[in-house]
Amino acid sequence: GDGTFAAPAAAAATPVTLTVLTFETSTRYLGGIGGSGTNTFNSHGLVLNTGATAISFASTTPRIVSNPSGGGIYGVSPTFSVRMALFQTGAAGSSTSYFGLGIPTVDGTGHTYTVIHIGFKIVSVAGTLNLYATQADGTTETASASLTTLGFGDILDLIGKINTTVSTDYYWQKNSTALSSATNLTTNMPSTGGQQAQFSVSNNSVATATDYYVNSFSYQK
Fold first, then answer.
1. Does the predicted model carry a pTM greater than 0.90?
2. pLDDT band at residue 66, thresholds of 50, 70 and 90?
């Protein structure tokens, strides 16, 4: 031979399990509504609409894994993402919303963010909406500072990367801006358990309608 050797083949990428939801039919997803709230499944995906009554809320809770005792949704360092848009919020609104893993309690008066979860929340005060990273261990919530403010028609990509039981890296992208750097939260991390994600919005006892479009959701481990 001439002393040359072929380069070794690149190692195969580690296989992953990917779950993708596009909300094509309402019968696949558990949900809750109150007051004049609605969950609609159409060409936008999932439309969460509180309706313009003070007691209104809407939530959808898809099951991601079938057995929480096998590590649940938080085990094996998964990544999740949500693609969504803000469609309507009243100028005098005072809504709260949640998009992520876990099922924070929600009704027409608001959310209980101390319930086990890892995700993003949007909180509106007098019509100004702020996006936050949020996580809780069932007793205490840890939330970031405001990541960005939102307005009518904004499109968001929200991404969470769980690092075992140590921390979560949160990323966001709004409209055509660059993907953010990671916001890392380390305290009040869930460890194992849980089966469902949640997408929800509440009027927080203020009679102003708020709509979110959830185009898709992914979960990978």
1. yes
2. confident
Cα 81 from chain centroid (whole Å): 7
The rounded distance, in Å, linking the Cα atoms of 135 and 57 is: 21
Residue 11 to residue 174: CA distance in whole angstroms: 35
Res. 91 pLDDT band, cuts 50 70 90: low
The predicted pLDDT at position 80 comes to 97
Greater model confidence, 115 or 76: 115
- Give CA torsion, residues 29, 31, 37, 42, to 10 deg: 0
